[in-house]
Amino acid sequence: QQTLPSQPLGRRQPQHLRVPPSVSEEPGGRGRQRSPQSVPPGQDGRRPEGLQISAGFQELSLADRGGRRRDFHDLGVNTRQAIEHVQESKTGSSGITIKLTANYFRLTSRPQWALYQYHVDYSPEMEARRLRSALLFQHEELIGKTHAFDGSILFLPKKLGNKVSEVFSRTRNGENVKITITLTNELPPTSPTCLQFYNIIFRRLLKILNLQQIGRNYYNPSDPISIPNHRLMVWPGFTSSILQYEESIMLCTDVSHKVLRSETVLDFMYSLYYQVEEQRFRDTCAKELIGLIVLTKYNNRTYRVDDIDWDANPQCTFRKADGSEISYVDYYKRQYNQEITDLNQPVLISQSRRKRGSMMPGPVVLIPELCFLTGLTEKMRNDFNMMKDLAVHTRVPPEQRQREIGRLIDYIRKDDNVQKELRDWGLSFDSNLLSFTGRVVQGEKIFQAGNVFDYNPQFADWSKETRGAPLICAKPLDNWLLIYTRRNYDIANTLVQNLFKVTPSMGIRMNKATMIEVDDRTEAYLRVLQQSVTPETNIVFCVLSSSRKDKYDAIKKYLCTDCPIPSQCVMARTLSKPQTAMAIATKIALQMNCKMGGELWSVEIPLKQVMVVGIDCYHDTLSGKQSIAGFVASLNQTMTRWFSRCAVQGRGQELVDGLKACLQTAQRDWFKWNKYLPSRIIVYRDGVGDGQLNTLVNYEVPQFLDCLKSVGKDYNPRLSVIVVKKRVNTRFFAQSGGALKNPPPGTVVDVEVTRPEWYDFFIVSQAVRSGCVSPTHYNVIYDTSKLKPDHLQRLTYKLCHMYYNWSGVIRVPAPCQYAHKLAFLVGQSIHREPNLLLSDRLYYL
Amino acid sequence: MDKNFQEEQFTGIIKFTPPLYEQRYQFIKDLVGKYKPKKVADLGCADCTLLWMLKFCSCIEVLAGLDICASVMKEKMHRLSPLPVDYLQPAERSLTVTLHHGSVAHKDPCMLGFDLVTCIELIEHLEESELKKFPEVVFGFMAPSVVVISTPNSEFNPLLPGVTLFRHPDHKFEWNRAQFQSWALETARCYGYSVEFTGVGHPPTGMENVGFCTQIGVFVRKYAQTSESAQSEKPTEAVYKTVFKAVYPSLKDEKYLQNAVVSEVIFRAQIIKRSLLDRLMSEHEEYNDDPAEGKFKFQPSKNCSSEDLGKLIVEKSMGPFVDGNMVYIPLTTIFSFPKVNRLCGTFEKLCKLIAGKVTLSSDGSAVMLNTEHENEEN
């Protein structure tokens, strides 16, 4: 069945009309090629081909942006202006100050700097862009050496004498042309066009430095790190963006690493073929490959694999732009001299998202043999050894990170061409990292059943301090099943003994498990579950002998939907090491307790009647391309119990409908627990991609408000919606003595590197053992709470202490991490909504 | 190669399919296929489209472009840079691409030693003085084995709508066939070349007498040049300015070759190790259902030191085996893989390339890998 979108042509003859990726630059002749009598640009609805920046900056285009490409920086979403109580100030006050530097450099311009935008008209109309440029630049004495021109729009760093200038030029044929140059705009340094303009200049600069563009970033191919064990290559590189931040326009640049793989998709398919059974091969291929980004052998483009077409092969034909039909084999041979040797391989389908010229965005066909994989597959991410080997190279400690970032800015300052260009435009970069003052808020005390624990805030971990202490609420293990295969009998037995040793001090009452031996087959496990699980069963424990996912999935699916009972699956290997057995038994006991509805610890939460919500998404690329939103809401004052539900969203559906239903149920459950409704609701929204902020503000928030309104006339709770972002390029360094270190957990930054149009802040909540800590960005996009920024920051930090699967502080508020766990479990294993009978327990941990 | 053209006689508009410029480039590509030149220069390379197409031709090791206008070259020159994939899988051949800013009326030693020089739609842009110097520079000084020159055929112009004088405002002249051929024959005679005439862009039916839309002369040097004598007579200073240079990664470069070999050796060794361990594991399970899974050790069949084992490998050319925590995979086994074999050529070369980069047994005859740290945690 065709899953391709209905491109008008594609519907008629799908097998023939998909195009291979087009030549990145269609041969355009040598400027001597006659084009068919065309309408002058600007009059035929065609966009101008892109603004050209002078002096070799030509191929970069300004007009390219806006509308067509996604705005990764969410420019123009001004949410702060609607939040009354942060108009004056959005900064907090508590904590002790700390001197910080960040990976930002100020971009400075001359005082009263502006970019002048002119419109250029020709009479008679001149059609060729190059000719238009040549005619205009005959008047360099008027417009000056520094200019950017795309054929109709001209940017200058200076203002011309008159608003409208008329000049005359002569073509080589002796024709006289009148050129009218009209001032249309005076752009301040902070205008979006100027920002784009800075970014273009900067990217050009990275190219001059011989860095290779892959996706959005630039990498240095000349000194790759090779990891042959896993056929990986790592290229060091940089991310960069220039934006308007709180006080000034700055360049944010960070060290980035690109993982590339020295094998083609076809190589990968072959090695997979030898690893899995024939009938599972296609599924496995799809699972491993779909969603991955590939690089092609013949151009500098990356494509996302969206589908694999097993019915097609390289001998299939497609229709070229000129109407002739050609097979992929012949096309690649002719166009790129690329020999395709395997004629039976399937083809990869990529849905082009970007409109290119006059071409309709449509599916693009890629040949596996000509594509290289980039990034990591799901399997690789789960490969502990691989990740360890990678981390050695990709985790850069603060000192080294700062050095590498500094090197980039050094290059910039030393390159004459770049310096000249910047000077001509009246721009320059600061040579030092941005430095400013942050705050470290006070550490939290951990409360656990009458005990109060302090811990070393540097490590942000209290597993040692609280080991063996009684829990807030311990659920008994009166009636539980332990299922294992024959080979793992000893392991299972040892586990029970160890649990008997560790549970009493926690206050967990425990009976001996009902031990059940099974064959190591999925059906055998399921049969045992069907026969032995009763409504009295507290929890089911399965010792699995391999990391085969299907068994795990089947068990989870059955126990989360058909027969809602908490379950714990552990790999035999994890339990087999004597030196860690007790620590693991402790961890398992805690985890099982949470799954059954127990509570471990709490921190002080001064805010009353507040319901905290966490939302995260999982995008299932495989089965039906559905997305799952995990939704978690607090049920009690201490935030130790959580309601959960998830919204499964098919393709093309809006996620928000499901979220509304989740919020309604959460309110109902809150009422059941508390006998009143929450007066405040604080939503932490994770899983928002770059450029999606607008959708959130315009669709999701109004739906939440609607939902709350529908509860009743007199019910008018205060709502805060906070977008949580873990993947940011911002890095903070703390100066400690002469050295640079990671800022300590609890560091809050709400100045300088935040955005003026947002109510946003950064918190470093976690501690890392190696590399640089990554701060989490919080953007309050809606807020009627009237809570002081300081209180909201504190609450957020407190919530990072409440994730029960980790006796320490994590990167995000606990509800986000719970929501993530839930969405992941449903997306990976269950694929439909879990039974609501489980909804008041952390069964998804 | 089929030179299709479509002619819509009723409208009188001639449209070439594929477009004429593509036909010209294809003509050059076909010529490259025929002569297999190693060094190719494109004079008047403009936006480098032809060079970009030629970089995919695997026989070419040196590509050079020359143009009088630096900004046109710079516009798209970065597409001549190596692609990420060229680094991921370095090619066998070496390739250097250079762009020069300068005039075909000037001599520069960087243009010496080429096998093929192309001048596509170039000469009609030259001023009279430049055109006069052009033969001496290209045929006399550069003196490549083959020169290709294409230029508009003015006899075709009446069929092109809207062309009054020349096809392009920058053309200084457009020749008919007789004019071009007499200039070409004279040039060829003068510098010891033979020339053949052809073209692209067929005229419509019934109009065959006007000839091709683009006329092409292919010049082949008659006598092989003794390169030394040729170059020693030509002491010239560099007058061109290099605006771009890209050296492609190649296996001819020891650094890339070593990388490739080490990667392949380790990868192969890992595969052998895994299949060996899997086999031992399943045998073990079949005959001895020991529940203490992770604990058993692979015992070598003989109780002898690893040096002895090393000798055994050489003497009896044993396959891979396990000793304690280590897996030994003889280099001979690894060398027998076609890709390793092809990369290294000889066994000695293999040993030399991986020395110090791969952990070997004490006598250097086998790759040593640890059986531990397979999936320590989950």
TrEMBL record, chain A:
Domain Piwi: 539-831
InterPro entries tied to this protein: ArgoL1, PAZ_dom, PAZ_dom_sf, Piwi, RNaseH-like_sf, RNaseH_sf
A Pfam family of this chain: PAZ
GO cellular component, one term: cytoplasm
PROSITE patterns the UniProt entry points to: PAZ (PS50821), PIWI (PS50822)
Region (Disordered): 1-50
Signal peptide: none
Gene3D superfamilies linked: 3.40.50.2300, paz domain, Ribonuclease H-like superfamily/Ribonuclease H
Gene Ontology terms describing biological process: germ cell development; meiotic cell cycle; regulation of translation; regulatory ncRNA-mediated gene silencing
Molecular functions (GO terms): endonuclease activity; hydrolase activity; metal ion binding; piRNA binding
Reported cofactor(s): Mg(2+)
Subcellular location: Cytoplasm
Primary localisation category: cytoplasm
Residues of the PAZ domain: 264-375
UniProt keyword Hydrolase, yes or no: yes
Keywords, in A-Z order: Cytoplasm, Developmental protein, Differentiation, Endonuclease, Hydrolase, Magnesium, Meiosis, Metal-binding, Methylation, Nuclease, RNA-binding, RNA-mediated gene silencing, Translation regulation
Family affiliation: Belongs to the argonaute family. Piwi subfamily.
Matches recorded under PANTHER family: EUKARYOTIC TRANSLATION INITIATION FACTOR 2C
Record protein name field: Piwi-like protein 1
Gene name, Swiss-Prot/TrEMBL: Piwil1
TrEMBL record, chain B:
InterPro entries to which the protein is assigned, alphabetical: Hen1, SAM-dependent_MTases_sf
Reactions this protein catalyses: small RNA 3'-end nucleotide + S-adenosyl-L-methionine = small RNA 3'-end 2'-O-methylnucleotide + S-adenosyl-L-homocysteine + H(+)
Annotated EC: 2.1.1.386
Keyword Chloroplast: no
Assigned keywords, A-Z: Magnesium, Metal-binding, Methyltransferase, RNA-binding, RNA-mediated gene silencing, S-adenosyl-L-methionine, Transferase
Claim: Protein biosynthesis is one of the keywords in the record: no
One GO term describing the cellular component: cytoplasm
Cofactor(s) needed for function: Mg(2+)
GO MF entries: metal ion binding; RNA binding; small RNA 2'-O-methyltransferase activity
Gene Ontology biological process terms in this record: piRNA processing; RNA methylation; siRNA processing
Family classification: Belongs to the methyltransferase superfamily. HEN1 family.
Name of the protein in its database record: Small RNA 2'-O-methyltransferase
Source organism of this protein record: Aramus guarauna
Source organism phylogeny: Eukaryota, Metazoa, Chordata, Craniata, Vertebrata
Gene designation per UniProt: Henmt1
